[in-house]
Amino acid sequence: MTSFAPDSIVLNRKLPLWYQVSQSLRASILGRSPQDPLRLPTEERLAGHYGVSVLTMRQALKELEDEGLITRHRRRGTFIEPSAQRGAPVRLLGSVDTIVAQQSGMTTELLDHGSVPVPAELAEHFPDLAEVGTYHRLRGDEKTGEPTNHARNYVRPELAARIDPQDLVRWPMTKVLRDVVGVRISRITDTVEARLADPETARLLQVPLLSPILHYTGIVHGEDGRALDVARIHYRGDRFSFTVTLDAH
User: Fold this and answer.
1) Among 25, 28, 86, which residue's Cα sits nearest to residue 57?
2) pLDDT (0 to 100) of residue 37
3) Positive or negative CA dihedral for 62, 64, 67, 73?
4) Contact (CB, 8 A) for 198 and 147
5) Whole-structure pTM over 0.85, yes or no?
6) Which helix (H) or strand (E) holds 185?
7) 1-49 pLDDT, tens digit each
8) Do 30 and 64 form a contact (C-beta atoms < 8 A)?
């Protein structure tokens, strides 16, 4: 049996179940790690995981097969196409001051903070650590109070020990690290991709489940090249757009 573990979702009965399941599986397939196995669990196991009928699961799998993301072989099982992967991400280049300005101008609520084991998907950024400091914030529009994004930051523990959590209510993490903690930042790598709102994001941002959102990952690097902070931010797709301007000179 494969160790492929698709994300669990809370199904919205107003949308076709096969569509919701296919979108969840699609996100899991495209977001898998290179070392993950290519073989999917059986239809019965997947149907049980999502709480749907085998017939519904077959319809969802057919959608993915038609997209070319999976192949199905009688008696052998269902396999992810090795070529199924995300397109090359758009990376935005700019100054640290530009990044700080983009993160400012919102109300901020600190939902929680503490220490957690390094998440598996971030292990490549913190290869020398077992734990990181974490901060979860909900941001909203200053004028309307409407939630616009929620952010989780994962910070090296020696830096987290020097952060006053209340500073993160006033300022972006990048500004706190640079101007309060005194870290010298060499570069920030930004990646933006489209995703569907999971149950937590839908609840916090007050949008329907599986609504389109923008998922931002920002990695702050120190002078020695190590990742100091990894931010994962979910933006409401109906409130944000990203523009890239290229200088032709």
Assistant:
1) 25
2) 77
3) negative
4) no
5) no
6) strand 185-196
7) 445 666 666 566 667 888 888 878 887 787 676 677 788 999 999 999 8
8) no
pLDDT tens across 200-228, in order? 999 999 988 888 888 999 999 999 999 99
Considering only CA atoms, which of 186, 169, 193, 194 is closest in space to residue 222?
Answer: 186
Q: Using the structure block, give the residue that is written with the tokens 């209510």.
A: 169
* Neighbouring C-alpha atoms within 13 Å toward the C-beta of 202: 14
- What string of DSSP letters covers 47-69? HHHHT--HHHHHHHHHHHHHHTS
Listed as own residue / partner, the contacts of 27-30 with beta carbons closer than 8 Å and 24 or more positions apart are: 27/195, 27/196, 28/4, 29/64, 29/69, 29/70, 29/80, 29/84, 30/69, 30/84, 30/85, 30/86
Q: Tell me the C-alpha distance between 208 and 114, whole Å.
A: 29
Please state the φ and ψ torsions of residue 41, each to the nearest 5 degrees.
Answer: -65, 170
Residue with tokens 């099982």: 77
Report which residue type is found at 139: R
CA pair distance 9, 50, nearest whole angstrom: 7
Per-residue pLDDT, 91: 47
Q: Which residues, at least 6 apart from 149, have a Cβ–Cβ distance to it below 8 Å?
A: 138, 139, 205, 233, 234, 235, 236, 240
Decide: 149 and 169 in contact? Cβ < 8 Å: no
Q: What are the beta bridge partners of residue 244? A: none
